[in-house]
Amino acid sequence: SPIAETGKINPHFIVLSRDITARKNAQEHLVQNHAILKGVIESSNSYVFSLDNKYCYTSFNTAHIQEMKMIYGADIEIGHSLLDYINVDEDRKIAQRNLDRALLGERFVDSAYSGDQEQKRQYYEITHNPIFDDLGKVIGVSLFAMDITNRKQAEIELRKSQEKLQGVFNLANSGIIMIDQNGNFLL
């Protein structure tokens, strides 16, 4: 008993020890993996972000932060819904439709013309990937968006040039024949 017959307290010590080496190694491994993943995401030329099944941000890279500020004037935050930041109704509807497809398990690439007219509108090619848990249930979406504005503008200009050329051909009074270098008729 702690109190001896003399009336004095005899100190008793209980020492427990637990080897936490495995736990410490696992924590270091997680920290290292997080640093690697963050480095990969930040080094991408894409706007990289992920959302949970309620459209709320779970991660994003610096490029995406800057792009959302540029096209919607938004200061995005983890845990907040992407849809709340999209201030153009049509853009929001398209984004939700595409997110819903990915949340149903579909992987796909889509292009969009997005942004607030008063900020800046850009063309994007967006890859949508469902995120699955260990049981195969979709728990979110990862997205990789690339600015394809220059490519789209070049395509638009090319299409306009083709239409003008076709108009010239249609208005020509005499026949026009186009032949390639092998002597094959093109028109």
Query: SSE order, as H and E?
Result: HEEHHHEEEH
Given the structure, what is the number of helices?
5
The Cα radius of gyration reads 30 Å
- Helical residue percent? 40-55%
Note down, in words, how this protein is organized.
- This protein is of the alpha+beta class.
- The chain is 41% helix and 20% strand.
- It has helices at residues 21-43, 62-72, 82-85, 89-103, 149-171; strands spanning 47-52, 57-60, 108-114, 122-132, 138-147.
- The chain has a five-stranded antiparallel beta sheet, with helices on both faces.
- A hairpin with a 7-residue loop joins strand 3 and strand 4 (122-132).
- The protein is elongated, with a radius of gyration of 30 Å.
- The chain starts with 20 loop residues before the first helix and ends in a 16-residue tail after the last helix.
- The model has no long low-confidence stretch (mean pLDDT 87).
Please specify the SSE layout and strand pairing.
Blueprint: H1 21-43, E1 47-52, E2 57-60, H2 62-72, H3 82-85, H4 89-103, E3 108-114, E4 122-132, E5 138-147, H5 149-171
Antiparallel strand pairs: 1-2, 1-5, 3-4, 4-5
Index terms:
alpha+beta; 41% helix; 187 residues; five-stranded antiparallel β-sheet
TL;DR of this structure?
This protein is an alpha+beta fold and 187 residues long. Helices cover 41% and strands 20% of the residues. The model has no long low-confidence stretch (mean pLDDT 87).
